[in-house]
Amino acid sequence: MSAKLKMAGLLTLGALAGALGTIQVQAVARNVHTPLPLEEMQQLAAVFGLIKNEYVEPVDEKKLINDAISGMVSGLDPHSVYFDKKSFKEFREGTTGKFVGVGIEIGMEDGLVKVVSPIEGSPAFRAGLRSGDLITKIDDTPVKGMTIEQAVKRLRGEPATKVTLQIFRKSDNRSLPVTIIREEIRVQSVRAKVMEPGYAWIRVSQFQDRTVDDFVRKLEEIYKQEPQLKGLVLDLRNDPGGLLDGAIAISAAFLPADVTVVSTNGQIPESKATFRATVSDYARRGGPDVLKRLPAGLKNVPLVVLVNEGSASASEIVAGALQDHKRAIVMGAQTFGKGSVQTVRQLGPDAALKLTTARYYTPNGRSIQAKGIVPDIWLDETAEGNVFSALRTREADLSNHLANPTAEDAAREQAREEARRKLEDQMARTGEAPKPLPTYGSPEDFQLTQALNQLKGLKVISSKTKADRTEAAASAASK
């Protein structure tokens, strides 16, 4: 495994930026009548026949057709996907926030699966798994060498089935087996807490079906503790996106009524739209306006939005809208840069096509495709500087990404690549990965501390340039 892959393994599963994208869901495929190119279709049929009749061993016809469709779609851009029965089920689990498994948020450390946090009330939580536990075996299969996606597949399964995990608990310096019965898990995409009197933190890790309801409920809890809230941090770091209506709703919670949140433009008429901070644009299927439950003071409470390279798509829509309307100070790092919208067209009961149908634009008309949201105040990941930011994949790194004439200039990209190589070389020499970053929302969370300082009018330690660090190091060495 390369140093780059080792580094990527340390990031939590939620940090797979753009995995969900910005999604609009359409239940039925459009009736599109497009003339087929006869010569190319004859070639496709000829290739199908040759493989079917002459390949070294028999090949399933359905697999050939599915692979042909997948190849056709995957060549478009990184976010258009053909879903067969299995992958469509996994996709729906991602947007609903429900899945069958043991109930842990995981990352990778030293080639092993690390328990970042057990989900409260889950089978793993009841079995006594703790943050920091290392999973060395899943059933009888060693974890060493697995990717995080492979580990997730083994941890998930059918309801009421058993999985045995071999756990190494560093705090006790011992290994122990834990048998867990899988059940349906509901992922909590919103976390929040009062950090200190008058100041609170609310984190959205993904835009799912229930995200807006959970967001409102958490804010209600905050206001019960702090009726005179003085400042709020909206944390969108490593939020890979999700449902478009959720992004519109959370933006509308802070913005004046009817202002533009985001606009979209594409080839078909329905992709040309402007979405505003109005209930008709974010309440799903004529449902109730849950934002009515929020205190009126939320519209004016001082607000900081935290973002990083893992903030993608729907989270970029929120950050861009609040930034353009000067409703919040955006702090952190330049975001992922996914400025496209995908629509899910169902192709029957068990298959679907997720197709890029539009680009989206912030209220000021900015396309962030392959560029991202540039923060108002840049922050390093730690007081010592950045650790993982140079190795995080962004939209501009993906094959076949949609081009943007306003994408980052060559100098910034070159600087980023130099930082990436330097960190990989350092890891290759020492054989050790950097210490994982503190949990978001913890007292050790450097960026959150700076966001709170901004709200309180205290000094903020903004990002140091390479020259600043060199000068500081030289000054320290001369003393």
From TrEMBL:
Residues 88-156 form the PDZ domain. Pfam families: CtpB_N-like, PDZ_6, Peptidase_S41. Residues 409-427 have a biased composition (Basic and acidic residues). One of its GO terms (molecular function) is endopeptidase activity. InterPro entries: ClpP/crotonase-like_dom_sf (IPR029045), CtpA/B_N (IPR055210), PDZ (IPR001478), PDZ_6 (IPR041489), PDZ_sf (IPR036034), Peptidase_S41A (IPR004447), Tail-specific_protease (IPR005151). CDD domains: cpPDZ_CPP-like, Peptidase_S41_CPP. Residues 405-444 are annotated as: Disordered. GO terms for biological process: proteolysis; signal transduction. One of its GO terms (cellular component) is outer membrane-bounded periplasmic space. Belongs to the peptidase S41A family. This is C-terminal processing peptidase peptidase S41. It comes from Vitreoscilla filiformis.
